[in-house]
Amino acid sequence: MNMNRPNLRRTLFWDIDPDKIDYQKHARFVIGRVLTRGNLSDWLEMRDFYGLDRIRDEAIQIRYLDRVTLSFCEVVLKTPREKFRCWSAEPSIRKLWNY
Description:
Helix content is 46%, strand content 0%. The protein has helices at 27-37, 40-50, 52-61, 67-76, 85-88.
């Protein structure tokens, strides 16, 4: 196991070069990508690399998490959903269509 980077699937980072990611500096991006698009092995690898405290600290600051991911974080990270930025922040678009 490489301690400088987690062994995550490269397809999680289809839009960037995974070899150029600074996994400490861009931890919030990596954690968000794994939470929203990763599988169980990605989650376990991320947990082993960052630890639950770091994942919690970064996940709380993520602007958008879908309801399933937020519920998962709430249970696994033992943090009430009200603490997450994505729960308390106003959406940038309040109403898509006004009929």
